[in-house]
Amino acid sequence: DEELKPMQMEINMKENSKMTSIMALELTLGVRIEITGDFKEGLKDGHGKWVKNNLVIYEGSFKQGLKNGQGEYYWPSGNNYKGSFKNDKRHGYGIMKWIDGTVYKG
After folding, report:
1. Residues 81-99: tens digit of each pLDDT
2. Most distant CA pair in the chain, distance
């Protein structure tokens, strides 16, 4: 099993408080995950960024720790989606771009 080791944690855990902060975790296999932006009650809430091994994976809106609202998601392959999210899933209008140049809008 991979063990999560907190490297840096500056999260305000006060109830109903909102602050900008950084949380970084490193897996024993050398995977580094950084989550920056607004937190509320220990969960991502508001605008933020999720970075894995210095590559932006997602930047946009979060609500109660899930991707919600407008954002942009990047796959390691180079494909990306920019549009609406609801409950951590692509939802509603968005633009999907593949590395081969194919674009889907809808």
Report:
1. 999 999 999 999 999 999 9
2. 46
Cα gap 88→47, rounded to integer Å: 14
What was the pLDDT predicted at 30? 72
Q: Give dist(CA 56, CA 61) in Å, integer.
A: 14
In the predicted model, residues of the chain with pLDDT beneath 70 are: 1-29
Show Cβ contacts of residue 62 under 8 Å, excluding neighbours closer than 6 positions: 37, 38, 43, 44, 45, 46, 47, 48, 68, 69
C-alpha angle 56-48-15 in degrees, rounded to nearest 5: 145
User: Cα 91–75–101 angle (5° rounding)?
Assistant: 90
What is the model's pLDDT at position 28? 60
**What gap in Å lies between CA 23 and CA 31, rounded to an integer?**
14
